[in-house]
Design a protein that fits this description.
Elements (H helix, E strand, L loop, with lengths): L14 H11 L4 E10 L2 E10 L2 E8 L4 E8 L17
Antiparallel strand pairs: 1-2, 2-3, 3-4
Length: 90
């Protein structure tokens, strides 16, 4: 399956990438195509998948080969989420 270079926002993921996401995450996930760029004569796709309060970032080539994977909490803790400090005695 070939992919033509387009300038429109109606870009579809190659079948192999879609299958990877469906096989790995099964149900109840959201994903977003973040970037599609041409690298030499190949296309690279960066997608984000959100499931179970984790955001996964994947980079694939146009053949569906996974090039990079990262994950992080969807809602990172901040300083206000820590334990309540003990009261200071007077």
């Amino acid at each position: 399956m070939g992919i033509m270079k387009t300038t429109t926002g109606n870009q579809k993921l190659p079948y192999a990438i879609s299958e990877y996401v469906i096989d790995r995450f099964r149900e109840d996930f959201l994903f977003d195509l973040k970037e599609r760029k041409q690298v030499g004569d190949r296309w690279h796709y960066t997608i984000e998948v959100s499931k179970d309060d984790v955001v996964y970032t994947f980079e694939f080539d146009d053949k569906g080969s996974l090039l990079k994977e990262e994950s992080e909490p969807a809602f990172p803790a901040d300083a206000h989420d820590g334990p309540i400090p003990e009261e200071i005695p007077e």
